[in-house]
Specification:
44% of the residues lie in helices and 24% in strands. By secondary structure, it is of the alpha/beta class. The model has no long low-confidence stretch (mean pLDDT 95).
Length: 158
């Protein structure tokens, strides 16, 4: 059974350099990950047009997280992991029969505390706050890097 990956994010990604990077890394991930039982990756974008902040965004995000998915919030208070640790965590979830893994990226104000409390895990790219569009790029790259590590590809040099 494959581990399907979902990136559930606030905001619409327009064409531009971030979009190009995400598309490239996710295409690479899908190619490498397929043989490993990882993927595909599906991007779910939500937008709160009324500007209600994280409280208004939370139900929109919950609406695109697949039922029964393991939820991982992207949060500066989350766990710091090396790339090999991240690849191992993906492989463990796949090997434990997890069908869907949803990475949740909040908007400008972050993720509502009630939604954060529902998460199975929380991952950090450091203590700095990153724009949500860059978090998508970094997550996409780390997904590809994880698949490369698991496949034995030379992409990741420790």
């Amino acid at each position: 059974m494959a581990l399907r990956i979902h990136i559930c994010a606030v905001g619409r990604l327009r064409s531009g350099p971030e979009r190009d990077l995400i598309d490239d890394y996710l295409k690479r991930f899908d190619k490498t990950g397929r043989a490993l039982g990882l993927g595909p990756v599906k991007l779910h974008e939500v937008e709160d047009r009324k500007g209600g902040g994280m409280r208004a965004e939370a139900p929109l995000l919950q609406g695109v997280i697949p039922k029964g998915a393991v939820i991982c919030t992207m949060d500066e208070r989350g766990k710091l992991m090396s790339s090999p640790e991240f690849s191992k965590a993906l492989a463990q979830r796949r090997d434990n029969g997890v069908g869907d893994l949803a990475f949740v990226i909040g908007g400008a104000d972050g993720i509502d505390p009630a939604l954060r409390a529902q998460a199975d895990m929380s991952l950090s790219f450091g203590q700095m706050v990153w724009p949500h569009m860059l978090v998508r790029v970094m997550l996409s790259e780390q997904l590809y890097r994880a698949a490369s590590i698991l496949s034995g590809s030379p992409y990741h040099r420790a």
